[in-house]
Amino acid sequence: MYRNYYSNRKRFALWLTALTLGAGCEAGDPEEGTTLPTPTEEMTADPCSFIQCQHDGSCRVDGTTPMCDCPGGFTGLLCEQNIDDCPANACENGGTCVDGVNSFSCSCPAGTAGERCEIDLDLRLTVPRRMISDKPITLRAEMLDPASGKIVTDGCFDTLGNVTVKRADDGTDVPVTVTVFDDHVPVPNDSLRFYHGVGSVSLTLDGGAAVPAGEYMITVTVGERTATRHLTIESGPTWRVMPATLSGADLTWGPNENIRLSQHNTIVPAGSTLTILPGTLVMVDTTGRLEDGTLLTINGKLSAGGTIESPVYFFSERGASAMTHTISGSSLSNPNAWRGIFFWGAESSTLDWVILTGAGNGSIVSHPRPPILNLNNTHSLTVQDSIFTDATGMVIQSPGRGTSTIRRSLISRVGIGAEFLSNGNTVLIEDSWWTSIGRGPTSPLRYDGDGIHVDGASSKQAIKRCYIVDIGDDAIDHSNSTFTIEDSVIHDANDKAISMTNGALTVRNSLIFRTGSGVRGSAQVYNSTILSPSPIANPVTVLDSIIWPNQLSSCDGEVNYSLLGTGSSLACGTGNMSVDPMFVSPSTCDYHLAAGSSALTASSSGGRIGWNN
Question: What distance in Å separates the CA atoms of residue 369 and residue 440, rounded to the nearest whole number?
């Protein structure tokens, strides 16, 4: 009788709860006018036999009342309700949130991809999810080919994009000011400059702390490409302030937390790992004194792991004033900047999806810029998908003998890119952009700002698929090492494209133009195009390459199947010629070969010669 009467077991559970607790009839009890029978001995002996918890919920008895304990993602008396896990503004670029079980996913509109539709398939943005109203924010934008997903690298560095910030609720514009690191290549306010498809910008909100906290939208537009990301602005946030020596809970930052470094030197002890989780903002106080910025010392290990949607972001508490190139007397430090991160010992650290700005205020070691990331002993570092910009120092310096791996990262608007100085280090740099480096205020001190410096006869070093562009001194400086450059482009360096002191270089499928000179030193060059004066000081081997318009004798080394500049000697080697290579458009940095070029069929195998990306 009772089983038939209470076939709706949820109703029975409500009834039994009301009866045993003396709460009377409530919503969900039997209909009005129905007489509730007295519970039988069977019913009170095993109340769980009269309900069935759904979705793998488990029944327990509280007194005489059966209750369901629900697994994650479900709620309700019988665990019958799937909790809506979609947070506000879960999906970017107009994506629709789809609730799952203890999870959610995004249904992305055409032209977008990624876990939260954060990747626009023709303009990919990396930008912090949160911003402090009176502090800068830094972003990277990459122009993509939607069909292949690869960066569109056409052009020089004359492409400008536009960046705007609007309130999410009503679309009201929020005025912004772009940070100017130096003025050697002007960038209009609210704009960013692209170098072969990759651009970055740092900006502040004109209203500062008066800008209300809430949800905003940041949009980048370049030509027909547009991408938008959600941006949460916080005003007067709470910070977790770190002690001088980290231990226990202070060795984990985030996720989505505000961390403040207020000590002159914050130390991670040997044997400890500092873990920084996605979305963490790290604000660094500084002293205001020259060559004396705040330092983070890693005697153990650092694991900083952001995501494209929620990168880890380091910045100075002094904001935009720390992100400009300054000269004070003979010092190239900015007193408003912090110092950087120094690594010691034999551990291996990682930086994934990290944005670091406003650093480099320290003592000078080697070339005249203070190091930011300094690798000592045999400490190794892997950097991936990260951004280092608007910092007056040298981004990476390695006097140690560890392994440095840099992938898919942007180093731009800094004093010096990197120096790997020791004998016996290992360096692999792949798919990275080194742009607008070694510039600064008009002064002799702006020079000797190299893009990358590699040293050491026992070192193993390779640079692959990189753009090294707009460099104040040498694009690549070098001492003694034997290293390789592959599938890379170097142009607009004030001095040499590659400056070599001893050692040897191998160049494969690379393009060099508009530099003070080409390669100073001994080089083997294959399938490459060199258009700078003094193209190769000591050509050991030149094969299937274009050296134009400057002269190179075919008798200087093993020179074969190459196009040499007007007036070059062709007395030696095989298959060499001296004719116009017929580039598509040098004025727009397009050095592909035009139809009808003799170089299209001039290689040792009957194919094209020179660089081909």
Answer: 12
